[in-house]
Amino acid sequence: MFQKGEVQSRPGGFWGMIKSVTSSAPGSENLSQIQQEVDALEELSRQLFLETVDLYATKERIEYSKTFQGKYFNFLGYFFSIYCVWKIFMATINIVFDRVGKTDPVTRGIEITVNYLGIQFDVKFWSQHISFILVGIIIVTSIRGLLITLTKVPL
Question: Which residues are within 8 A (CB) of 46 and not within 5 positions of it... i.e. 6 or more apart?
Answer without folding.
Answer: none
